Model the fold of this input.
Amino acid sequence: MTSHTAHASAGQHWETSAAPFLIALGCLLAIPLPFASYFQYHSFGFAIGFLGIGVPVLLAGIAIWVNEGLTQKHDQFGYVSMGLPIFITSEAFIFLGIFASYWALRLLAPSWPPANTPHIGLTIPLIMTVILVSSSVTIHMAEDKLEEGDVSGFRSMLIVTILLAAVFLGCTLFEYSHLIGENFVPGTNIYSSAFFSITGFHAAHVLVGIGIFVSVLLPALGGKINKDFVKCAGVYWHFVDIVWFFVVSQVYFW
Done:
């Protein structure tokens, strides 16, 4: 018993990675510090500076971690499939907390939307919905291609998914620029704070999804594909798609 345990322990080793530290540091620089700089200390320059550093660090950490999972051999397996439901559940509760705050603001407000709120059209969010749903279809098609052994088709569908996600982010930036041009910024009123927080948080998840897909695509171009990671990336993307239906229905249509 003792020798067997010692032998099993000898076959294992500690695995180290800088990726978790980079992701944690990127989250710190990209989320709480910009918010505190802008809303608490009213420093737009510091907020942009923290974002300019935090976002690349966050994306680098995600890229490194995903690439390690795709390309390195591990003694034990199953962590990805086990960890994904925990991750998705935690993300769902974060979004639920944000939506609960919005519902409280919305239901307790004497009038809605508050004064100084410009008309926010429904055309762009509807277009964004079509784009995001289409991207869920294409990533599903990519997974089907991979299961069929069509690696070229998988890569093509994955590229299409990335492009659709990028167009979605482009629509978000276009809408933001239009609203900011009408002096509707996060500090305009309580609705603007909720609007930019919710849509911005979702857009951040889209950006992370793009980073994950790119991290899957680059090794795939060299023939290195981990089906478990591809499946988990697809599940994450479908989750982002589902959350968008809550965003668009609550923030735009309600």
Summary: Residues 1-76 form one domain. Residues 1-10 have pLDDT under 50 and may be disordered. The two ends are 64 Å apart (CA to CA). The first helix runs from residue 2 to 10.
